[in-house]
UniProtKB/TrEMBL annotation:
This is Type IV pilus assembly protein PilP. InterPro entries: PilP (IPR007446). It holds the Pfam family PilP. It comes from the Bacteria. Keywords: Signal. PROSITE patterns: PROKAR_LIPOPROTEIN. Residues 1-25 form the signal peptide. The keyword Disulfide bond does not apply.
């Protein structure tokens, strides 16, 4: 019986400690301050602007890192219907890259002919006259110690094709 009285006494003592208002005076003061504020003083949420997606539409235009080509319409060369790329031939590996990524780094010569070494497309490649280079059906026409001459076949924009000469100069180490 004494244990029951002791348990009841401890429970009452514990609960009486929770009811003490002197421990929460600072909390009561803060709550009074919040209640005293005027109603409607909360600022409204900002209005969110809807997201507008951006579509890049200049992908098909000239690269801004290359100089512009000035072509006068009157002096513009007309294409020919006889000149056109051979669509039936098997494409070579180096035709999958732009010709701008290639640099001539040297030449090799033996009894079978002269070869040029071009750097680009992940390594150094050996090419000879008659090989193709670049995406515009560029056929190598001549190799010298200082440059590679290439003839590209490009559309003229009016249904014909033009042969455009290009050359890759030897890249000397500096």
């Amino acid at each position: 019986m004494k244990r029951a009285h002791l348990a009841t006494f401890l429970t009452v003592l514990t609960l009486s400690g929770c009811g003490s208002s002197s421990d929460f005076a600072d909390l009561q003061a803060y709550m009074d301050e919040v209640r005293a504020r005027p109603k409607g003083s909360i600022e409204p949420l900002p209005k969110f602007q809807p997201y507008e997606s951006f579509t890049y539409s200049a992908a098909s235009l000239r690269s801004p890192f290359q100089p512009p080509v000035k072509i006068e319409m009157m002096q513009r060369a007309k294409g020919s219907k006889e000149i056109k790329p051979d669509e039936t031939r098997v494409k070579q590996f180096l035709e999958g890259f732009n010709i701008e990524v290639f640099e001539m780094v040297g030449t090799l010569a033996n009894d079978r002919g002269t070869y040029a070494l071009v750097s680009g497309a992940g390594g150094v490649h050996r090419v000879k006259v008659g090989d193709y280079l670049g995406r515009n059906n560029g056929r190598i026409t001549a190799i010298s110690e200082s440059q590679i001459d290439v003839i590209e076949i490009v559309p003229d924009g009016e249904g014909g094709w033009l042969e455009r000469p290009r050359s890759l100069s030897l890249k000397e180490r500096s």
